[in-house]
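Quick one - inputs below.
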Amino acid sequence: MIRYFLKRLVQMVLVLLAVSVIVFLVMSFTGDPVLMIVPPTATDAQIAEARTALGLDRPLWVQYGVFLRNLLGGDLGVSYIFKRPALTLILERMPATLELVFFSVIISVVVALPFGVYAGARPGSPLSRAVMGGSLLGISLPSFWVGILLIFYFAVEKRLLPSSGRGVTGTLFGIPFAFMTADGFRHIILPASSLALGTLAMLIRLIRAQIMEVMRQDFIKFARAKGVSRGKLLFSHALKNALVPVVTVFGMQIGSLIAFATVTETIFAWPGMGKLLVDSINTADRPVIVAYLMIVAAMFVLINFIVDVVYTLIDPRIDLR
Amino acid sequence: MAKRDGFFKSEFFHNFVRDPGATAGLLIVIFFLVVVIAGPFFTPQNPYDIGGLDLMDAFKPPMWMEGGDPAFPLGTDDQGRDLLSAMVYGSRISLLIGVSVVALSCVLGAFLGLVAGYFGGRLDSVLMRVVDVQLSFPAMLVALFIMAAFGRGLGKLVIALTIVGWVLYARTVRSSVLVEKNKEYVDAARLIGFSPFPIILRHVLPNVLTPLIVIATIHVGTVILTEATLSYLGVGVPVTRPSLGLLVKNGYDVLFSGLWWSSVFPGTFIMLLVFGINLLGDFLRDEFNPRLK
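Output:
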């Protein structure tokens, strides 16, 4: 067990190192950060001076060493636009993104579980066909367009819900969250729903396929012969066994929710780290882009690790190598 | 499935005709093929020709609404550009990107998967580690990073989407090759004295094609969606060659001045196109999956 964890830990560090090399190289070969920092009136001599001051005249591998040392020390550079540490900027906006992702996860699980189980238990029924058609449509929808439609209908036409921003936030554990106030909660409904749609549709299809697979197996026939009620059979016997692959895919989906939050946050002007990334791309604010990528990469690696651990816990057949 | 009875008597065709979803999917895809091939001959305007625009035509609603003009069936944008024409040309860009990315990813991924699976060894383990790591990062984010670093452009977009697209093909082909390469026909080909590459291309490849077709079909839809998203975020296609996704973004910018049609119609086009492709893909996957038979 401990050997397995150590092996995974080493793997995680290696992946993050690889990511840092790729991010560093791509960023070094595109654009010149010196031109972003010096005033537009700077002379060639001043530009050269700034280049030396930033250490950008040194060989690439030395620069990478400096980059890595700063990275490990938590120094990810200072934003060209905000003139503040990039890491602080991202960490400030992280709760907003995480709360958006959290509510999307809740929405998708609450909706997908009953529909997926039903469609898997009765594959031929008209409702199941409707669910499957709807979920296929769900994965075919561009999430940004869904956001636009929601804004148009609920905010512009009906004036029911706010279309942008996070509203009034309340604090929990000293961190501001929108869902702590009624106004903030009203603000989160539309973005969380539009972000959830794709994951929800995918989960329905996955749960259905797994339930159908499990329902064919002998232990289900045995349980049925034993006289187990249909509800207990579905939700206790079948679902538990169907969930194992669902957990893995769901872990991947959380990563993809964080990625697609960039789009949702941009549409709904949600002040999270995804909107910060898109804004920084548009203003070529490289330290913030690099900081975002490194932090998000670390989050993905961590999520994958947790998924693997959960996987082994819920499926005792899996042997830790 | 007796081959000599011809395609129209095959089990595949039989199942296809009886599956309303698959038929609808094929009809949608054919509709779009007609639109992108023949559409430009029928559109009222060439949206790339700035000289043909007239600001007097700006902000026209669709023709069935009050103030609509039959010359502009789906209305115009803030510069008097006909929306229907823009959507026809936009579909060309979206579909062109979708098909070229899938073709490139498929060839690259299948080649690497074949080589890794057939030869095994260090090459195989390195390649599969790369695939594993890349699959653990959302494709959209990796593509966003590449486009953010190198700037927008059609060619760059195709390259970026291929870089994130090849992995699934490589993994699928490799696992099929691992099964195939121990079969007798491969041993036989090897004994006759064929060298590895002819064996891979002529004997192994045809036998791993089925899963590739399924993945490639669904991948076209995914690529079109990702491209639309990147273009929406402003890092995709250049503004001079708007794809459907960029049209939605342009429409969103004027949504609050009441021009709902200029974002709703291009978005409907994306949805319809991807839905049609997914319907086909779904059918193919069920059809080619031996476990469901």
